[in-house]
Amino acid sequence: MTVLVALLFAAAFLPWTLRRAVPSAPEPSGPPQAPDPVLLLALLDAAVGAGAPVPRALQAVGAAVDGEVGDALATVGGRLILGAPWSEAVAAAPNALRDQLDPLGAAWSAGAAPGPLLRQACERLVRERRDLVRVAAGRLGVRLVLPLGLCLLPSFVLLGLVPVVLSLAGAFVGR
Q1: What is the model's pTM?
Q2: Calpha distance 79→115 (Å, rounded)
Q3: What Cα–Cα distance (Å) separates residue 104 from each residue in 34, 37, 48?
């Protein structure tokens, strides 16, 4: 009898133990995602801060960032090395990437140091994200008031007020 119970117990928990013993790797879903714009600007700032000229910095970051964005960065850097003006070098890049490279373009065209412009763009993006998160958190608070009120108000009435009312009613009726 004990052996039968042990076998049933083992059979019941065998799938659970096998699932826990063999970790499954998450499968990639969909196309590869573009790198975060803040990360991209920080990488460009680090490359330029290390002493690389803008075209070489674009190529180095393009090599570090795979995919379509990396290829576009490497292409822009290569065109700048060959002497193309900024507008022509960036023309083949996707629109979102062009917007991210605007601080570099301003520095390249004016001959200014790109580091401060890249850091300002990075800070602006972080500030915009922080504002979006604050707005979303405010909306979430407003959306949670009704469900929480509907859940907590009946329990407060049943657990807090009803016993008090019953005890007071019992005290008045018992007189």
Answers
A1: 0.67
A2: 21
A3: 19, 13, 10
- 32, 37, 138, 148 from 46: Cα distances, Å: 24, 14, 35, 47
Reference 55, options 32, 71, 37, 73; nearest CA is 73
- pLDDT tens track for 30-39: 566 778 999 9
Instruction: For residue range 42-60, list pLDDT tens digits in order.
Output: 999 999 999 999 999 999 9
Residue given tokens 């119970």 in the structure block: 5
In 3D space, the residue among 73, 110, 76 whose CA is nearest the CA of residue 90 turns out to be 76
Q: Which pLDDT does position 67 carry in this prediction?
A: 87
- The predicted structure's pLDDT at residue 146: 85
Instruction: Kindly state the tokens that stand for 20.
Output: 């826990």
CA 70 remoteness from chain centre: 20
Whole-number Å distance between alpha carbons of 90 and 71: 12
For residue 46 the two structure tokens come to 């680090």
For 38, phi then psi, to 5°, come to: -65, -40
